[in-house]
Every structure is written in C-alpha cells, then in structure tokens.
Amino acid sequence: MSHTAHIRSHRKPRRSASKVAMRAGVAGGVLSTLAVAGASGSANAAEPVTQTLELPTLTADLATQVAQSADATQQAAANYALQAERDTAAAKAAKQAKADLADAKQKAEAKRKAAEEAARKKAAERASRSTERTTLSTSAGTGTSVGTSTGSSTATGSAAAVISFVKAQIGKAYVSGATGPSAYDCSGLVQTAFKQVGISLPRVSQDQSTAGTQVSLSNLQPGDILYWGGAGSAYHVAVYVGDGMFVGAQNPSSGVVEKPLSYDPPSGAVRVL
C-alpha cells in the first residue's frame, strides 16, 4: 500500500457528463432568456430613445418658425411705420399746398385791385384832360386868347433866364428822377431851371403845383409853371415860354420838347416870378 493511500485526494470529484450537460443546458436557457429579455428590454427602451432623438429636430423647426414669425412681425411693424411716415408727409404736403393756394389767391386779388385802381386813375386823368380841352375850346370860341389876352408874351429878367435854360435842354432824355445835366424828368427840369435864378422849388410835381400864386390859363406869362392834374396832386409840370408854347420833359419816348398848349392843355398854372 502506498504511503499516501490513507490520505484523501485533494482533487475535486469529477462531475458526471450528464450533470454538466444539464447545467450547461440550464445555463444556456438562462442566458437565452436573459438575451431575449435583454433584447426585449432593448426594444422597449428604444422607443424613448427614438423620441429623444426626434425632439431636437422638432425644436429646431419650432425655432425656425418662431424666427420667421418674428421677422414677419418686424417687417409688418416697419411697413406700418413707413406708411405712417408717408401719411404724415402727404398731410403736410396737402397743408402746404392749401397755404400756397391761399397765398396765390391773395396776391392775385391784390394785383387785380391795383390794376383796377391804376385804370381808375388813368380814366380820371383822361376825363380831367377832356374837361380842360373843352374849357380851352370854349375860351377860344368866345375870343379869349390863352396866354396872350392880358399878360406879356415877352420874357424879361429872371423869366427870360428860365426860358433860355429850358429851351437849351430841348432834345435831352427823359429819365425818371433825373435833374440834369444830360437827362431830366418833368419836375427835375422845372426845379433846375428856377435854380438858375436863385429860386428853390420843391422836387415833385404835386408840390410845385402849389409853390406860387395860382393864375388863370387865360392870363399866362412867360416863366409860369404849368401843371396837369389837380393843384397839390399834379402828375406833370412844364414851363410856359410864351406865344402859346411850353417846354417840358414829357416822357421817355419824346424827352424834353417844346409843344403848343393845344398839344396837351394843362389843368392850371402858378407864378413864382
């Protein structure tokens, strides 16, 4: 007998093949069950995963829609603001156009009134001249001689100097406001002529027509100042030079001329010499 025969073997007893096979089958079944359960669990767990994966896509679409809606809102607000600006500008333009129209009407009315007033004055002047012509014609018909009936036709002294001066200006130009030496207006010629003999006359026709003593047109003397229009409101003056003639700065087209009284009969006369 071996000296180790009495010692129990340290080896594990062998399992029978049937038990191993059974256990392997059980283990395989368990593993299969676990695999099926795992697969089933995986399949069941896949549904929330699929939903979770789709959520970002839905969120991105929603964000895009929100952004588009915000853009549309902003664009609508901009359109409303632009329309408001246009409406304000249109209202302002309409208001300005109304004011301009009112101003234009007011100016047109003022021009119309001025034209009517000018026409009225011209008509009054023509009527006055017509009246004076009628008076002179009547005087001539009754034998009254204008300028020669009682007064002297020959200028002497200061009157001669005035007449000599105005005749020397015949042919010079008529310029409104001019007092010589190359051009005159009607009152400028009269004022400058009397200044030659030391007499200072007012500058304008209205004042010159009342500067001296009023005399009748039938009793004129050389050197008298003739005026057209009313005394104090005369619109033209000239110098009587005798023999039914006068010298005056008539208008821009004729300048300084010598004309007979019948050419344009005066309204009255004053004597300062």
Could you tell me the radius of gyration in angstroms?
Answer: 63 Å
Total E-strand runs: 8
Question: Low-confidence spans: pLDDT under 50, at least 5 residues?
Answer: 33-46, 134-150
Helix and strand composition category: alpha+beta
CATH architecture assignment of one domain:
Alpha-Beta Complex
Assigned CATH class of one domain = Alpha Beta
Strand neighbour order, sheet with most strands: 3-8-4-5-6-7
What does this structure look like?
Among the domains are: 87-144; 145-271, Alpha-Beta Complex (endopeptidase fold (from Nostoc punctiforme)). Helices cover 55% and strands 13% of the residues. It has four helices and eight strands; from the N terminus they run ααββααββββββ. The strands form two sheets. It has a six-stranded antiparallel beta sheet. The protein has a two-stranded parallel ribbon with strand order 1-2. A hairpin with a 2-residue loop joins β5 and β6.
Descriptors:
55% helix, 13% strand, six-stranded antiparallel beta sheet, 273 residues, rod-shaped, two-stranded parallel ribbon, endopeptidase fold (from Nostoc punctiforme), single chain, alpha+beta
Summarize the structure.
The protein is α+β, with helices and mostly antiparallel strands. 55% of the residues lie in helices and 13% in strands. Among the domains are: 87-144; 145-271, endopeptidase domain like (from Nostoc punctiforme) (endopeptidase fold (from Nostoc punctiforme), Alpha-Beta Complex).
Task: Give the arrangement of secondary structure elements.
Layout: H1 17-141, H2 157-168, E1 173-174, E2 183-184, H3 186-195, H4 205-208, E3 213-215, E4 225-228, E5 236-242, E6 245-251, E7 255-260, E8 268-271
Parallel strand pairs: 1-2
Antiparallel strand pairs: 3-8, 4-5, 4-8, 5-6, 6-7
Helix pairs in contact: 2-3
